[in-house]
TrEMBL record:
Organism name: Nocardioides endophyticus
GO molecular function: kinase activity
Histidine kinase domain sequence ranges: 496-580
PROSITE patterns attached to this UniProt entry: HIS_KIN (PS50109)
Coiled coil: none
Name the record gives this protein: Two-component system sensor histidine kinase
One Pfam short name: GAF
Length: 580
C-alpha cells in the first residue's frame, strides 16, 4: 500500500470513516457497527458509574475523604492512570494549598518531594478556569516541566471544580489508559463529575462549619459550667486562653486585660512560654488589643510582622514566627475589660481563614461575663471571711483582752498588799506577761483584717516596714490613707512593694536617718507611695541604679516617680501610678 492509499478499515483498531461507508464491504460494516455499539455501551456504563459516584459522594460529609474519593472516581471514569485535585487557597494569591493525588504510590510521592503550588500549566488553569485537553503536556507553552523522579506524563485533561460562582480547585487527569488522548466524551463526563463534586464539597464544608460552631458553643458551655463551680487551682484567664486556642486550632493565644490603653497588660499566654516580666514589658499602646479595647470591634490581620497596626509579638518575646492573628474584645455588662488574641504560624494560615470571627467574639463575651461573676463571687467570699474575722477580733478585744486587763489590775493591787519581796517580784512578772499577751492578741486582731498575707497589700506593706526596723534600729512610721486594699490591684502591688523595699533599703544603708515616714494613699487620682527620711540626702555623684528602677516601674504603669533630696531636709521618694 502506497502513501496515497487509504488505510483499510478492516485493519485492527481502525474504524471506517463516515465518508467511506458507501464503499465498504459487508464485513467492514459489521465491524464498524460493533465498534460503535461498544462505544455506546461504554458511555452508558460510565454515565451509570457517574450517577453511582454522585450518590456515594453525597453520603460522605468528611471533606478530606470526599476529596480523595472525587480524585479516585475521576480517574476511573476518564480512564486516567494518574489523577489529582488541587484545592485553591482562600487568599488573594489564589495558589494551591492542598494537592490530593491518585495513582502515585507513597514512595513515588516521597521521591518527588514538595507537591506543586500552582505554577506552569496548573497555574494556567487557576487563572483561566476552563476545561483543557492536551495531546502532550510538554508541548504546551505554559508547561513548567516535571521535577526529578516524577513519572512521565503526556496526555492531559484539566477541569475546574466550582462551588456556585467560585472555583474551589481543579481536577487534573494524565496518561490516558491505552496510550491515546482524552476524548470529548471524557471531558463531558469529568465536567459533570466536577459539577456534582462542587455540590458535595459545599455540603461537606457546611457540615464542617457547623461542627466548628458546635465546638465553640460546647467550649462556652463547658467554660461557664467550670467557672460557675469551684476554680480552685485554676486561673480563669488561663482557661479562657487554653480553650480558645484549642477550638480555633490556633498556635498561640493570649489574654490582655485593662479598660484603657494605658492599663493594658498581657496576663496569660497559651501555646508558648514567656516569662511574666517579658509579658509586662510589652508596650501595648500601639497594638491590635489597644484598637479592640477602644473600638469594641474584632480585628484580624494576615501578618503580625508586617501590619503597621500590630506589634510583632513573636519578635518581642523571642517566639517562633507568627503570621495571621485575630483579636476580639472581652466585653461584659460594665464595658470592655480587655481582649482575647489568637495567632497562627504562617504555615497554618488556612486554619485562620476557616475561623468565623463571630464565634471567638461570642466566646470572649461569655467568658468576660463569667469572669465578672467569678470576681463577684470571690469578693463575696472575701467579705464573708473578713466579717467572720472581724467578729473574732471584736470578741478577742471585748472579752479576752478586757478580762486579761482586769486580771492584771487585780494582780497589781495584790502586789501592794504583799510584803514578801520575792512574791511581789513574781506578781510584777505575771503582770508584765499579761501585758505582753495583750499586745500579742492585739497584733493578732490586726492580722485578722487580712484574708491572707499574700492577698492583702496592707499586710505586705506592714511586713516590709517591720522588717526595715531591724536595719534602721527603729520602726518607720506607717500611715494608710483611703481604700488601699480596694484600689491597689494585683497589677500595681508587685511594683509598689518592690519600690517600698528599695526606698527603705536606701534609707537604711545610705541616709543615716533618725526618722523615716511611709505613707500609702489611694483614691480617685490613683495610688501614691511616699517614703521620706531626715537623713543626709543623696550625694550628687551617686549612680542611680535603684532610683532608675523605681522610675521605670512607675512609667510602665503610666505613672511617675519624683525624688527630692537635700542635706538639710533629707530625701523624699514620691511614687504615684493610676489605679488599674
Amino acid at each position: 500500500m502506497t502513501a496515497d492509499e487509504p488505510k483499510h478499515a478492516s485493519q485492527p483498531g481502525v474504524a471506517v470513516r463516515p465518508g467511506l461507508l458507501a464503499d465498504a464491504d459487508f464485513d467492514d460494516l459489521v465491524h464498524e457497527v460493533l465498534i460503535r455499539m461498544h462505544g455506546v455501551l461504554d458511555a452508558q456504563v460510565r454515565w451509570r458509574l457517574l450517577l453511582d459516584a454522585v450518590v456515594t459522594m453525597a453520603a460522605d460529609l468528611s471533606l478530606d475523604r470526599l476529596l480523595s474519593r472525587i480524585v479516585e472516581i475521576a480517574g476511573d471514569l476518564a480512564g486516567a492512570q494518574y489523577a489529582a485535585l488541587g484545592v485553591l487557597d482562600a487568599g488573594p494569591e489564589r495558589r494551591l494549598r492542598t494537592f490530593v493525588t491518585h495513582g502515585l504510590s507513597p514512595a513515588t510521592v516521597s521521591e518527588i518531594g514538595d507537591l506543586p503550588t500552582g505554577h506552569g500549566l496548573l497555574g494556567l488553569l487557576i487563572d483561566h478556569p476552563e476545561p483543557v485537553r492536551l495531546h502532550d503536556i510538554a508541548q504546551h507553552p505554559a508547561s513548567y516541566g516535571f521535577p526529578a523522579n516524577h513519572p512521565p506524563m503526556r496526555s492531559f485533561l484539566g477541569v475546574p471544580v466550582r462551588i456556585r460562582d467560585r472555583v474551589f480547585g481543579n481536577l487534573y487527569l494524565t496518561e490516558k489508559v491505552g496510550g491515546g488522548d482524552f476524548t470529548e466524551q471524557d471531558e463531558e463526563i469529568v465536567v459533570a463529575l466536577a459539577a456534582a463534586a462542587g455540590v458535595a464539597i459545599e455540603n461537606a464544608r457546611l457540615a464542617e462549619d457547623a461542627t466548628r460552631r458546635e465546638r465553640w458553643l460546647a467550649a462556652t458551655a463547658e467554660f461557664t459550667a467550670l467557672l460557675s463551680g469551684s476554680t480552685s487551682g485554676h486561673d480563669p484567664l488561663e482557661l479562657v486562653a487554653d480553650r480558645a486556642r484549642e477550638v480555633a486550632e490556633a498556635d498561640v493565644a493570649w489574654v490582655v486585660t485593662g479598660t484603657s490603653v494605658e492599663s493594658l497588660r498581657v496576663r496569660v499566654m497559651s501555646g508558648a512560654v514567656a516569662s511574666p516580666a517579658a509579658l509586662d514589658s510589652l508596650d501595648l499602646e500601639q497594638s491590635l488589643a489597644s484598637r479592640v479595647v477602644q473600638s469594641g470591634l474584632p480585628v484580624s490581620v494576615e501578618d503580625l510582622a508586617s501590619d503597621p497596626r500590630a506589634i510583632d509579638v513573636s519578635a518581642a518575646l523571642g517566639l517562633p514566627a507568627l503570621g495571621p492573628a485575630m483579636v476580639v474584645p472581652l466585653r461584659s455588662q460594665s464595658g470592655i475589660e480587655g481582649a482575647l488574641a489568637l495567632a497562627w504560624t504562617p504555615d497554618h494560615i488556612a486554619r485562620f481563614r476557616e475561623v468565623d470571627p463571630a464565634m471567638p467574639a461570642n466566646f470572649a463575651e461569655q467568658a468576660a461575663l463569667v469572669l465578672q461573676v467569678t470576681r463577684g463571687r470571690d469578693d463575696r467570699e472575701r467579705l464573708a471571711v473578713l466579717e467572720d474575722r472581724d467578729r473574732i477580733g471584736r470578741d478577742l478585744h471585748d472579752l479576752v483582752i478586757q478580762r486579761l486587763f482586769a486580771i492584771g489590775l487585780g494582780l497589781q493591787s495584790t502586789s501592794r498588799l504583799v510584803d514578801h519581796e520575792e512574791a511581789t517580784s513574781r506578781l510584777d512578772a505575771a503582770v508584765d506577761d499579761l501585758d505582753a499577751t495583750i499586745k500579742d492578741i492585739r497584733r493578732s486582731i490586726f492580722a485578722l483584717g487580712a484574708v491572707g498575707d499574700t492577698a492583702d497589700i496592707q499586710a505586705e506593706v506592714t511586713r516590709l516596714v517591720d522588717r526595715a526596723a531591724g536595719t534602721l534600729k527603729f520602726r518607720p512610721s506607717l500611715t494608710f490613707e483611703g481604700p488601699v486594699r480596694t484600689l491597689v490591684t494585683e497589677v500595681v502591688a508587685p511594683d509598689l512593694l518592690a519600690v517600698l523595699a528599695e526606698a527603705l533599703s536606701n534609707a537604711a544603708r545610705h541616709a543615716e536617718a533618725k526618722l523615716v515616714e511611709v505613707v500609702l494613699s489611694a483614691g480617685a487620682e490613683g495610688v501614691t507611695l511616699t517614703v521620706s527620711d531626715n537623713g543626709r540626702g543623696i550625694p550628687g555623684e551617686i549612680v542611680e541604679s535603684g532610683l532608675s528602677n523605681m522610675r521605670e516601674r512607675a512609667e510602665r504603669l503610666g505613672g511617675r516617680c519624683e525624688v527630692t533630696s537635700s542635706g538639710e531636709q533629707g530625701t523624699t521618694v514620691r511614687w504615684s501610678v493610676p489605679s488599674h
